[in-house]
User: Fold this.
Amino acid sequence: MPIQRPGVLVLGQAGARVHLAAAAVRAGGEIVAEADWSDATLPGATGAQLVIAALDDLAADTLHDAVDRLGHVPETEFGLIVTLTESQIDAVAAPLLARRITLLCDPEPADLAAAVAQALVAPAGPAARALPATVADQRSEYGLPAEPVQVAAADVRKAIRARRLRSRPFPDVLFEDPAWDMLLDLYAAHLERGQVSVSSLCIASAVPPSTALRWISKMTEDGLFVREPDPFDRRRAFMALSETALDRMNRYFATLAQNGLTIA
Assistant:
């Protein structure tokens, strides 16, 4: 009896579908259907364990329509991988963050095949969302001061600059800490009363965009980051610290001040 391979539905323009289908087959999947974004109605995912959608090179109107349609895909039915370009991050990422969606920015063939392979073996539905450990409740809050202290945004920016300077004598990979780098950037923006786009936050993370997007999605899902709609463009959103994260950052800096330490 032949081994049944997981079904994959491929969405995108014709040229992009070729690469997506090749990655899916290489990872052990079987293409059960393909569709272009111009189709009036996308084919159902019956028989598909995974949907791979390419947003690369879509015109603005088509891109926004595609993102809107992806945002309404039921998360409990199948996994979803979306490929995009770096210039599309703000238009694509904010509406799709904190969902069971893997966002790959300009992926190499090997990266795409690896993501597909991982998605094909991951469980679908609520069980999948229960697998990752949440960021919250990992450490006791014992010892954190209850009262915040006054922190200057300039001091936080200096700390961020100092962290970036470490990569001059050493390889960047030695100091990858995207979660903390993004927390610092959003905290500085809060103090400055500024706004941070998803693409800017990816840059602040100092890791490749696809890695940054995974972290942003996880930290949004875990309640540390929140999306703030752009009042001038409903299709865009800015990222900010949640009230919980802001409170913890305030108390962290209070702890530093209490112990005579500088921002690290």
User: Anything to note?
Assistant: Strands lie at 7-11, 30-35, 50-54, 79-84, 101-105, 196-197, 225-230, 233-241. DSSP finds ten helices and eight strands in the chain.
